[in-house]
TrEMBL record, chains A, B:
Its cofactor is pyridoxal 5'-phosphate. It comes from the Bacteria. The keyword Transmembrane helix does not apply. This is PLP-dependent aminotransferase family protein. Residues 53-390 form the Aminotransferase class I/classII large domain. One of its GO terms (molecular function) is transaminase activity. The keyword Kinase does not apply. It comes from Paraburkholderia acidicola. Keywords: Aminotransferase, Pyridoxal phosphate, Transferase. SUPFAM superfamilies: PLP-dependent transferases.
């Protein structure tokens, strides 16, 4: 026993903290920080899409004109003009969203934490897609739920599978209808209608987590479930993928009763999202900037997606399959059943290429022969090179 | 039953959410937003102390020189140069603080939430001062502890009261040694030594929450307990009172084992504190700015504290007593035992003056004849006028 052992305190952690493990993505990202690694692992937006100059002008204006308010404590609900902007933006297709339904959060991740805090008791059944967003599993798991996986196919969640048996006692259903992380799948319009109708009869909220909705390559977004059932859908949005993630500004649109509980929980959690970053976001978006900016992101990601799909076609051996996303940041790859993508990752990193294994995205019964590729951070020439390396590894294994 | 009732969803909230009530301070602050109200309620730093011009220059430099990094996702632990700055600043009086012990948080309130998440199980005993910081009670209560109040006197927490009976099974002890919120009390050096020694033998961490430490009017800060027992004290710091609260940047200094759990919990909670605000804080403080800036805040608050003490002397009737703070932002007032400060507040607001009743600061057995006055947001002439109104109300009641 050395000196440090003698002094290290032996403190008891909470039950939830004892169950905590670090995210697989996080550990992988550490390895792939080496510049020689071509990483398809990170879900990091391309920095070239950040409107830095506009933000610089906005910051400058805000700190010159309203420094007292921008640097002071502010309301837990968020900056009212930004809440109004969000409400207006979502008041489409006949839906009327009120600013009193909008809570500004410190990124979408905080929205997930607050929803877990307010809705989940230990052993509460929580319905999730198969697979689902890893970050949601991490947030919800702090509140010790029992996950129930909802069956999916190539079009995403299957509403007909939401039987009374499957959903009995559920506290919440969590779904990403647009270009889901990790599969890149988009829920078709008929399924949105069916899920919205289900939400109207369900004794628990359906969460529509929508960070990627604006990134549809054809510029033809499908209507949100929020617009179909505004009193029964809890909608999560974010400025991370359309402006910049480093500001950590997202929002929850929820019926007032839930909104009020979320506000109380947020007050206990971080008082409010930084006044300054909320004002920067509002200053940048208030005059319609996203209408011209988002199409440039779409075009960039669509071209990189096309490059990755072409490279997969070129280099992948028979027995490997993948989807063709209509938007977003990810492609979901299915390997022959005998290949464990977690083991493949070790070899891949040795060849300076990285991805995220699929297993951590499953709440249970993980499909180990799946993996997620992100095409947004890597330029097309590097995409081809990285997929070629991955293809060579797989050809040696099938 | 009207239309909206028919459509309002009936969702089940978690046990912790059902217990949630809005903070008394929060409700009062809403009332006191009217400009004619002289409010001693808010703990809002005086905006004149915000170094807005420096922040504007810093923001400008950051978004010109490193926009990609400042606007991108970043490490959960926080911006490394800022963590290094914090570690260096606390490596005094023989203590060596490592950057690996420092986690940057979205304000100190998030530090409290993360500590609750990682340390508290339902019914865990949690030791708090009598009275204690309301925001800590709000954060910890989300994890459903059983509070145990530690006796205090005019010098704060009494270390000799920490008997094995009182502390049995405790998961954490929470204390604010410097100019405590709400009492303004400072823990003397002998008690700090005793509490640090207690921490070294305790099977749970002692939290030293220190948002006001830099604001001692004589410029003669007492050593932190962290410096006395760096492996056994968890120290919380904040830039809210020395720079600006609207950026929401604070930090936790903790032994690595706890630090690692806190990082995992923070990842699930909001991924990381905004990259941009962390870099602004670092850019502003890195060259010693606080050494010249903080004394100007101290002088301002000391003068306003002096004005309030003089006004109390002038206008308060016999039977009302208060302490004389050596720093910080608050004065704690004790009324004759038959006066309930919550009821007094209604009358006071009608006379356009506000304060915070003392009761919400007690975990149990509230002393209803106490109240908290903040002197930092109101200029001296208004302080005199506001205390005069309050004195008139009390003279009619004693």
């Amino acid at each position: 026993m050395d000196q440090s052992d003698l002094h290290a305190p032996k403190w008891q952690f909470s039950e939830r903290a004892r169950k905590l493990t670090s995210s697989a993505i996080r550990e992988i990202l550490k390895v792939t920080e080496r510049p020689e690694v071509i990483s398809f692992a990170g879900g990091l937006p391309a920095p070239v899409t950040f409107p830095a100059e506009r933000m610089r002008e906005a910051s400058d204006r805000i700190l010159r004109d309203t420094p007292g308010a921008a640097l002071q404590y502010s309301a837990t609900e968020g900056y009212l003009p930004l809440r109004e902007w969000v409400a207006t933006r979502y008041s489409v297709n006949g839906a009327q969203i009120r600013p009193s339904q909008v809570l500004i959060t410190t990124g979408s991740q905080q929205a997930l934490d607050l929803l877990g805090k307010v809705l989940i008791c230990p052993e509460s059944p929580v319905l999730v897609e198969t697979p689902t967003y890893l970050g949601a599993l991490q947030s919800f798991s702090m509140y010790e739920p029992r996950y129930v996986q909802v069956p999916t196919d190539d079009n995403g969640l299957i509403p007909a599978a939401l039987t009374p048996e499957l959903t009995a006692g559920a506290r919440v259903l969590y779904a990403q209808p647009n270009f889901q992380n990790p599969t890149g799948r988009r829920l078709p319009i008929e399924r949105r209608r069916a899920l919205a109708a289900f939400a109207q009869g369900a004794p628990f909220p359906v969460i529509e987590d929508d960070p990627y909705g604006a990134l549809d390559y054809a510029g033809e977004p499908l209507p949100t479930m929020l617009s179909m059932a505004p009193d029964h859908i809890v909608h999560l949005g974010s400025f991370s993928k359309v402006l910049a993630p480093g500001l950590r500004v997202g929002y929850i649109i929820a019926p007032e009763e839930l909104h009020f509980k979320l506000v109380q929980a947020k007050q206990a959690t971080d008082l409010h999202t930084p006044s300054f970053t909320q004002r920067i976001v509002h200053e940048v978006v208030k005059d319609g900037f996203l209408d011209t900016h988002v199409p440039t992101i779409r075009t960039l990601y669509r071209d990189q997606c096309t490059a990755m799909l072409a490279a997969l076609e070129r280099y992948m051996p028979e027995g490997v399959s993948w989807n063709k996303p209509e938007g977003g940041m990810f492609i979901w790859v299915t390997l022959p059943a005998h290949i464990d993508s977690m083991k493949l990752l070790d070899e891949a990193v040795a060849q300076n290429v990285a991805f995220v294994p699929g297993a951590p995205f499953f709440a249970s019964d993980a499909q180990h022969h799946t993996l997620r590729l992100s095409f947004v951070t890597v330029p097309p020439a590097k995409i081809d090179e990285g997929i070629a390396r991955l293809g060579a590894l797989l050809r040696a294994r099938v």
